[in-house]
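Backbone-to-sequence.
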């Protein structure tokens, strides 16, 4: 494996599968020009990344929380709200700074941590940070991190960005991309496919979906089959396990990317997330006619589902081609190369 003079530290957040899926799409292009070292915040994520990228170094930061630290309900409106005043947090910050120094990092990729973005920039390392979808306007930590970053990158097209986002001019919009096959499969069945990885999602949605008197396939979790419902379980490649045109899903960016690029007609039920990120994404997709937005407060109403099904059936999926960017990884690598040229040492 070649060794490059420019080393990038790449932070992968431990919550949700989207961060590691994004790394699987972007890192191969980075490896052609740079040495990549992963940084994570949990041993579980370290194990996952080492399984996916056995040839790359992966460093794990110690926890900033102690067993005696009281949990704080996040409101996302005060500075460093997610960083407790503890020795553990001090040790975590010190470990991160030492990693920047030990690897002589030329640039830090943040996907995504506002506090580490700020720390890296304060240590003299330029940062490219993923744009955290949703309304981040009231979070001073997030805003300052955006200001500290040399550039932001967004894994979706510019025209579905919140038009009020103040940092759009410094954001590189990569479009939708996916490491999975985007070859569209022939659909031979009528009905609905529900994509969910949680029993909670099944419990919340299946009772009302059953009332629509349509066949239902559930992808992503196990359950008991009935004459109307078929559980397909967890799958490695979702692209070959979607038997219907209409798909009900949450609003995570990677899942939306995969399903839209497969030509599916989506009814998006956003899950509660910081900054209402899934709600904002679903609303923007709906406004441009790419998907149907089903607010969670309406999911128990069969009439709303009937209307959503009618609207979804009329979506022109050929328009989605304009959202795809098969060259996202190469463009991301080129952006990093340009940033390094600005900060040659």
């Amino acid at each position: 494996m070649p060794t490059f003079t420019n080393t990038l530290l790449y932070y992968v957040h431990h919550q949700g599968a989207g961060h590691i899926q994004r790394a699987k799409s972007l890192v191969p292009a980075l490896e052609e020009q740079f040495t990549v070292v992963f940084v994570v915040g949990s041993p579980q994520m370290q194990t996952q990344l080492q399984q996916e990228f056995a040839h790359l170094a992966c460093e794990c930061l110690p926890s900033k929380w102690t067993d005696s630290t009281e949990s704080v309900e996040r409101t996302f409106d005060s500075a460093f709200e997610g960083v407790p005043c503890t020795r553990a947090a001090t040790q975590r910050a010190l470990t991160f700074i030492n990693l920047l120094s030990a690897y002589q990092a030329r640039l830090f990729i943040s996907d995504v941590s506002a506090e580490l973005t700020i720390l890296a920039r304060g240590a003299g390392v330029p940062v490219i940070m993923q744009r955290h979808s949703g309304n981040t306007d009231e979070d001073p930590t997030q805003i300052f991190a955006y200001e500290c970053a040399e550039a932001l990158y967004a894994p979706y097209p510019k025209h579905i960005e919140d038009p009020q986002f103040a940092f759009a001019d410094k954001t590189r919009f990569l479009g939708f991309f996916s490491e999975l096959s985007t070859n569209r499969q022939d659909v031979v069945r009528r009905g609905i496919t529900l994509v969910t990885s949680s029993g909670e999602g099944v419990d919340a949605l299946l009772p009302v979906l059953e009332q629509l008197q349509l066949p239902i396939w559930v992808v992503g979790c196990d359950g008991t089959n009935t004459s109307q419902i078929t559980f397909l379980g967890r799958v490695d490649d979702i692209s070959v396990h979607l038997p219907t045109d209409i798909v009900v899903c949450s609003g995570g960016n990677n899942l939306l990317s995969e399903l839209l690029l497969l030509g599916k007609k989506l009814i998006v039920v956003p899950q509660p997330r910081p900054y209402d990120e899934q709600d904002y994404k679903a609303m923007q997709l709906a406004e441009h006619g790419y998907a149907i937005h089903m607010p969670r407060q309406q999911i128990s109403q069969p009439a709303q589902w009937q209307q959503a099904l009618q609207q979804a059936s009329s979506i022109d999926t050929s328009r989605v081609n304009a959202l795809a960017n098969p060259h996202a990884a190469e463009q991301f690598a080129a952006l990093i190369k340009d940033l390094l040229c600005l900060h040659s040492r």
